[in-house]
Write a structure and sequence with these properties.
The protein is an alpha/beta fold. It has two domains: 20-138 and 294-329, Rossmann fold; 142-292, Isopropylmalate Dehydrogenase (3-Layer(aba) Sandwich). Helices cover 41% and strands 18% of the residues.
């Protein structure tokens, strides 16, 4: 059993309140993956302790079959230094981060890899290769977006936050894809009809605040079944999205109030700050995944732990099999 699974079962200490924290989400994803075969994964530039050990641990858990893409001599030297066995993993030589990103994308395009995992390179370098029109991983006209999958003792539901890493200042059309991508991921994670909160600073439509106008339009798009598979409401403030009490005090009636599964933020800055505040002040664990590409892209911070990367791999596995169901004999 992985360290993360052990922590999830036994509980760990919440650094804010000093008592065992109830992490109740991530171990469920890991359990579901035990019934699924590992997926081939291009691990791009695994040249930090956490990046390489995370890939090795994910392989040991039966989640991925890694192909390591980077400087072979440096990868082997790092493996020896941190004491991990990579003898069973193929290595694709790349002298630079940008070349590693290019080769990782190529492995995914030609079917040699069913997912891609970010190592210790900069996100911009990886995504530049992913976004290339002719050689990248764009999937038709679908917009690529990012989701943080969150496990926090402060909230009893699985919580998805989008988009906090890819789309800087999304317009309405971008948000359409961001919302649909997140709903599709929620289905893969076992949430059949996710409740989607379209966040702003208030619950009323204000012509001077674009996020309230976008929220109203997205709700109407859902009414017209342009967006499917979820229950949308907005604009909603963060408190009413996650707290029934706050909604009651404000006199707001909504099927999403206090029960949001997905938080759609106005822009990257607000989303990134919200996610990191919940992580560092609220003790939340965050897994990261990029959606809308040809394959799932495991996109985590270089500062993330190996345990977080493990869960991000589990999310990618579940997403892959949701899109490519296993055929029964």
């Amino acid at each position: 059993m992985s360290d993360l699974a052990q922590l999830a079962e036994a509980g760990t200490v919440d650094p804010l309140v000093g008592h065992p924290a109830d992490y109740h989400v991530f171990h469920k994803f890991l359990e579901r993956c035990k019934e699924l075969s590992a997926i081939t994964t291009a691990v791009c530039w695994p040249l930090s302790d956490v990046a390489l050990s995370g890939a090795v641990e994910a392989a040991a858990e039966g989640l991925i079959q890694p192909t390591l893409v980077g400087d072979e001599a440096a990868i082997k030297e790092l493996a020896a230094k941190i004491g991990v066995d990579i003898s069973g993993f193929p290595i694709v030589q790349a002298n630079t981060e940008s070349k590693a990103a290019e080769l990782s994308v190529a492995l995914c395009r030609n079917g040699e890899a069913l997912a891609m995992m970010k190592g210790s390179l900069h996100t911009d370098v990886l995504m530049k290769a992913v976004m290339q029109r002719e050689t990248g991983l764009r999937a038709g006209g679908r917009r690529i977006s990012h989701v943080f999958v969150m496990d926090t003792p402060a909230y009893e539901r699985t919580l998805l936050i989008t988009d906090a890493a890819i789309n800087i200042a999304p317009e309405l059309e971008d948000k359409f894809y961001i919302v649909q991508n997140a709903i599709d991921l929620a289905h893969a994670l076992g949430i059949p009809e996710p409740k989607v909160a379209l966040l702003s600073a208030m619950e009323t439509v204000n012509p001077k605040i674009q996020s309230t106008l976008d929220a109203a339009a997205l709700c109407k798009m859902a009414d017209r079944r342009q967006i499917t598979g979820g229950i949308l409401d907005g604009p909603l403030a963060f408190d009413t999205a996650v707290s029934v009490k706050a909604a009651e005090i404000k006199g707001l009636v909504s099927p999403v109030n206090g029960k949001a599964d997905i938080l759609v933020v106005p822009d990257l800055e607000s989303g990134n700050m919200l996610a990191k505040q919940l992580e560092y002040f609220g003790g939340a664990e965050l897994a990261g995944i990029v959606l809308g590409a040809r394959v799932p892209i495991i996109l985590t911070s270089r500062a993330d732990s190996a345990e977080t990367r493990l869960t991000s791999c589990a999310v990618a596995v579940l997403l892959h099999y949701a899109n490519h169901p296993v055929k029964q004999a």
